[in-house]
């Protein structure tokens, strides 16, 4: 499907008729849905997700009866701003999923309008999994599973030449013009964020935030010899953990990018662990991520100390993504609480590991 009228714009459009057509696609044996029960699932800043219970009259492919349908925001201004993100998520399920090994929900349907402002995904609901809370953070066991899964995203396409021309991302591999252009936008976004949250962040964290935003241009150009496909928003709210085993499933691919792999790792550790927990665990978790890359994906010429330095440098990801997302999305009390928590943790990690010093030390 590629036309606006074929794609739901609201939960009222998630009907049995639409779901039947979406699940059938081009298959010769049609799926027939008798009825649907649709309920909101969380509250996204740039889109909406719904839990859908389907009753089938015919289900030749054995599609689960519990699904998730993701749609674009009902706010027109947000849809215009994040249409590239919608395209990125569709591209992940269409073009990337089979090339990586990171655990994701099964996808049964994907469609997007020609202007990129309306889309629909039908995914398996991960029953038995729970979303980790961004403010509370991950447990130690969950963190181990998360960094292993991240290696399963990066390892298969590590320095793959095809990524240098892969444009179906929110941000392709940066050149000087795009890096410094995004740096200017980040400075503006950081200013908006400080205006909103400065009293909560405090002067010390605000200074780190502003300095980090100002360094984004040269930072994006650092370590060009290493790159992989990035999730870019790899944090607790986008991870589903099995309630018993803590194994992880990863969702929300609207920030797909290409860049230094450890940016994802640093972003996760800086935003999804409380600071004391991160200080105690980050060295071990970086070593586990590196072990999986080497042992399971055969990455060579990449020693653990270089990985550690990449992690330190990558910590600026934890300023870049939250400020850009927060400054240009609708403001809510929950968003304020999440962003202030993430940015305080990020600024503490950047200061502790002298991430800005790594940028300053390079020509």
Automatic annotation (TrEMBL):
UniProt xrefs under PROSITE patterns: PROTEIN_KINASE_ATP (PS00107)
Name of the molecule in the record: Phosphotransferase
Keyword Signal among UniProt keywords: no
SMART domains: CHK
Pfam families cross-referenced by the UniProt entry: APH
Cited Gene3D superfamilies: 3.90.1200.10
Domain annotation CHK kinase-like: ranges: 121-299
């Amino acid at each position: 499907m590629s036309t606006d009228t074929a794609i739901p714009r609201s939960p009222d459009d998630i009907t049995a008729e639409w779901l039947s057509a979406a699940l059938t696609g081009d298959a010769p044996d049609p799926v027939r849905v008798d009825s649907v029960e649709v309920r909101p699932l969380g509250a996204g800043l740039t889109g909406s997700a719904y839990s859908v219970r389907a009753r089938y009259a015919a289900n030749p492919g054995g599609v689960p009866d519990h699904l998730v349908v993701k749609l674009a925001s009902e706010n027109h201004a947000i849809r215009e701003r994040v249409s590239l993100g919608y395209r990125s998520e569709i591209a992940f399920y269409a073009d990337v999923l089979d090339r990586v090994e990171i655990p994701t929900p099964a996808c049964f349907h994907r469609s997007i309008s020609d202007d990129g402002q309306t889309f629909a995904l039908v995914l398996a609901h991960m029953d038995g999994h729970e979303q980790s809370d961004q403010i509370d953070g991950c447990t130690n066991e969950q963190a181990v599973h998360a960094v292993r899964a991240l290696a399963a995203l990066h390892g298969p396409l590590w320095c793959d030449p095809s990524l240098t021309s892969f444009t179906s991302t929110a941000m392709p591999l940066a050149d000087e013009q795009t890096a410094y252009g995004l740096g200017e936008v980040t400075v503006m976004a950081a200013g908006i964020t400080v205006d909103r949250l400065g009293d909560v962040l405090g002067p010390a964290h605000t200074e780190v935030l502003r300095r980090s935003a100002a360094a984004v241009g040269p930072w994006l150009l650092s370590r060009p010899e290493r790159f992989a496909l990035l999730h870019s928003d790899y944090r607790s709210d986008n991870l589903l953990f099995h309630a018993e085993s803590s194994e992880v499933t990863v969702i929300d691919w609207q920030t797909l990018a290409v860049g230094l792999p450890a940016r994802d790792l640093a972003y996760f550790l800086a935003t999804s662990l409380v600071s004391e927990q991160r200080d105690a665990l980050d060295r071990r978790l970086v070593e586990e991520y590196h072990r999986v890359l080497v042992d399971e994906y055969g990455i060579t010429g990449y020693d653990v100390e270089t990985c550690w330095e990449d992690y330190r440098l990558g910590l600026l990801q934890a300023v870049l993504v939250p400020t850009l997302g927060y400054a240009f999305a609708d403001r809510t009390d929950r968003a304020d609480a999440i962003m202030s928590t993430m940015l305080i943790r990020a600024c503490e990690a950047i200061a502790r590991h002298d991430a800005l010093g790594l940028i300053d030390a390079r020509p």
